[in-house]
From TrEMBL:
Leader sequence residues: none
Residues annotated as transmembrane: 25-51, 71-95, 107-130
Annotated Gene Ontology cellular component terms: membrane
This protein's name: Succinate dehydrogenase
Length: 148
């Protein structure tokens, strides 16, 4: 067969590589996390913006009340983790599609995952160590609540 002809459709494919297929698992993760993110985000929006007094209810006390329960802490952490990993995997795909130099592609992908890991770490730390009484002084409106 010459270079200017197309292979017969029934020509056997090249042998498949053995081992873990990361691209397949990345593709599956994007579909699953996308569906789960839609549920998590709409649940978040309904609770925060539709139920109760709407956007007027969102203040520091509202956040304190939500983060006082492990359910909402885990809801937000799962949403944070999935959104960051989903977005980073999407950016990785774009870098793979458009960056042709192998060294540059490798550096950009490492930078993406390092930044995502840092944001996941910091976000998780904020959610689970959130303390509304940290730095409260006697002239603050939270002083009474934090004394009990």
């Amino acid at each position: 067969m010459t270079a200017d002809t197309i292979a017969d459709p029934r020509t056997p494919l090249a042998p498949r590589r053995k081992g873990l297929n990361l691209e397949k698992w990345g593709w599956l993760f994007m579909r699953g996390s996308g569906v789960l993110l839609v549920v998590l985000i709409f649940g978040h929006l309904i609770v925060n913006l539709v139920l109760g007094e709407g956007v007027r209810q969102i203040d520091f006390a509202f956040v304190v009340g939500k983060y006082a329960t492990p359910f909402w802490q885990w809801w937000d952490v799962i949403m944070l983790w999935l959104a960051l990993i989903h977005g980073t995997n999407g950016m990785r795909t774009i870098v793979n599609d458009y960056v042709t130099h192998n060294g540059t592609r490798r550096v950009l992908i490492w930078a993406l995952w390092i930044v995502a890991a840092l944001l996941i770490l910091l976000g998780t730390l904020v959610v689970f160590t959130f303390d509304p009484c940290l730095g409260v002084t006697p002239d603050s409106s939270l002083w009474q609540m934090c004394q009990g």
